[in-house]
Design a protein that fits this description.
Layout: H1 10-21, H2 28-67, H3 78-92, H4 95-103, E1 123-125, H5 145-150, E2 160-165, E3 170-177, E4 182-184, E5 187-188, H6 190-206, E6 220-225, E7 233-241, E8 279-288, E9 293-302
Antiparallel strand pairs: 1-2, 2-3, 3-7, 4-5, 6-9, 7-8, 8-9
InterPro entries: HotDog_dom_sf, PTE-AB_protein
Organism: Zopfia rhizophila CBS 207.26
Keywords: Membrane, Transmembrane, Transmembrane helix
Length: about 300
């Protein structure tokens, strides 16, 4: 009788090891995708949060600036005086103000302003309290209500520093454009810019000490805008005389027909041709404190309006 054969464990081991031998390993691309997909989703979520935050801030700023802007302080109020004091400190710290004060007489020198032109040429700071239209002759008079009332206050056109050169009859003014001068949110109105040029041109024509009401309005004023003028900023106005306006030669008049009546009987009215009044031309620029030209302007005045100021 044959003894039973012992069971071999080798086939079982082969059978058990077979799935391990035929197991498929994941491809490198799938493994790479699985390893990078969570960080990509993480970055996309942060981009979405950033977009929502920027959209909310931009919408809030637009509503605050366009739909419901904050109220401006009333001229003469306590808030307005505090803002004016801060603006005066800021304008005195500008480099152009320091430079022009160093080149001539200014409000803080020991020499009285009335005697500042004696013995020394160059720049002289004008003694203006609020705007360039005011002088010592009309301290208690309000004749230019547009600049002295409508554009008054820290949100208007009041904080100014002006310097006059008696040798070249040139004027340099540092002007503040407040928030109330907006034609579009953040941008100065063209009428406010033209008004500032009108005041400065008139000051050049009349001189540093006379009243602006002693001369007529400009015969013409043209303004060319090179780039937007933003409000809540200081700007530099430069004005001076340019090439005089030479009138064109008029055509020869037609010959007057002779009358058959004697002169003592001829009562016909004869037209008298008046010569055109000579004019002077002025040019100016509105620049940023970085000397970037924003606006160019030209004006013409009657030559008889020019006052020869004493040094």
């Amino acid at each position: 009788m044959l003894a039973p054969r012992p069971h071999s464990s080798l086939p079982l081991l082969k059978y058990a090891a077979r799935p391990l031998l035929h197991r498929r390993h994941p491809s490198p691309s799938i493994a790479r995708l699985n390893s990078t997909s969570p960080p990509a989703r993480f970055r996309l979520s942060y981009l979405w949060y950033g977009f929502c935050l920027a959209f909310g801030i931009g919408t809030g700023y637009a509503v605050r600036s366009f739909a419901a802007p904050p109220p401006l302080p009333k001229p003469g109020s306590r808030e307005d005086q505090l803002a004016l004091d801060a603006l005066r400190s800021d304008v005195d710290a500008l480099e152009i103000v320091k430079t022009l004060r160093a080149e001539g007489y200014h409000l803080h020198s020991d020499t009285p302003l009335k005697e500042s032109g004696k013995g020394k040429g160059g720049w002289r700071e004008l003694d203006i309290k609020t705007d360039i239209a005011k002088t010592t002759n009309n301290e208690n008079k309000i004749t230019r209500t547009l600049t002295q009332q409508s554009m008054a206050g820290a949100q208007g056109l009041v904080v100014q520093r002006a310097f006059w050169n008696s040798e070249t009859r040139e004027l340099v003014a540092v002007v503040w454009f407040g928030g109330a001068l907006c034609g579009w949110p953040g941008l100065a109105h063209g009428g406010a810019i033209a008004t500032a040029f009108d005041e400065v041109f008139s000051r050049v024509v009349v001189g540093p000490d006379s009243s602006l009401d002693s001369i007529p309005s400009p015969l013409s004023l043209s303004v060319t805008y090179a780039r937007p003028t933003q409000t809540l900023n200081f700007y530099i106005l430069r004005t001076s005389f340019s090439t005089p306006d030479i009138p064109q030669a008029a055509p020869a008049p037609e010959p007057i027909p002779k009358s058959w009546l004697p002169s003592w009987k001829d009562f016909t009215k004869k037209s008298v041709t008046a010569d055109p009044e000579p004019t002077v031309q002025l040019s100016g620029t509105l620049e940023t404190v970085d000397q970037k030209v924003c606006v160019k302007a030209k004006a013409s005045f009657p030559a008889s309006a020019v006052h020869i100021s004493k040094r």
